[in-house]
Write a structure and sequence with these properties.
8 strands; 8-stranded parallel β-sheet; Rossmann fold; alpha/beta; 232 residues
């Protein structure tokens, strides 16, 4: 595995021939943000089938217009995500995109209310990974990826709640990586699924798009349990 001590800085190099992503089915869970729309559009342009989820029909409309299959489902709900996994068929990647930021006011300003508002991001990582674990391991190149923050490496008092939630999300994602590796090892088969953390200072859609497209440019053994810091 590529451990957390081998952080990889991803650049913005655009690879013209993305044959490995073409034909893949990718679930973007909680995809109604501008980042979700940009990522869905890039994946569809590269030949992937995108299933985008959100809680609002109206907010899913731009994703439908971009060519994604849309499903009204709560990415933080294990029941919703399990129901989705049961009905969509084979899946090659799942990327939870539930996020947001609250902070400021030093350590004393880290309120329970703010923490509660940030926790859905962790809930989405847990729900999606559990619901789609079997599907991702059944794929010939399953991928699970989250968008984390460079704040995990250097947490500040005014962003302690945020950094804590992101750190917990990274820990869960690394546990997913361990599960993929253990299943492969126990079965005596090559590792085919990979779980990856993307760290950003601020989300740059173009950088994230290229990083996601590149998930199929490397073997699972090189990707699994890696932390990749993206340019902003």
């Amino acid at each position: 595995m590529t451990g957390p001590d081998r952080t990889i800085v991803a650049d913005r190099t655009i690879v013209a021939d993305r044959t490995n992503v073409a034909g893949r089915t990718i679930v973007l869970a909680g995809a109604t943000s501008a980042t979700g729309l940009a990522l869905a559009t890039a994946l569809i342009a590269a030949g992937a089938t995108v299933i985008a989820t959100g809680r609002s029909v109206d907010r899913l409309a731009p994703l439908r217009e971009a060519g994604a299959r849309v499903e009204v489902a709560d990415a933080t709900s294990l029941d919703d995500m399990t129901g989705l996994a049961d009905c969509v068929g084979p899946v090659d990647a799942v990327i939870p995109l539930v996020g947001g930021w609250r902070g400021g006011g030093g350590l004393a300003g880290q309120s329970d209310e703010d923490l509660g508002a940030l926790l859905p991001a962790l809930d989405a990582v847990r729900a999606t990974s559990r619901a789609f674990d079997r599907a991702l391991q059944a794929s010939d190149a399953g991928r699970f990826a989250i968008v984390s923050s460079t704040a995990v490496a250097r947490p500040l008092a005014g962003g302690a709640n945020y950094a804590a939630v992101k750190a917990a999300s990274e820990a869960w994602t690394r546990a997913v990586a361990h599960g993929f590796a253990k299943t492969s090892r126990d079965a005596g088969t090559p590792l085919r699924a990979a779980s990856v953390v993307f760290r950003v200072k601020a989300v740059d859609p173009a950088s994230l798009e290229q990083a996601v497209l590149a998930l199929w440019d490397q073997d699972a053994a090189d990707l699994n349990d890696s932390i990749r810091t993206l340019e902003s």
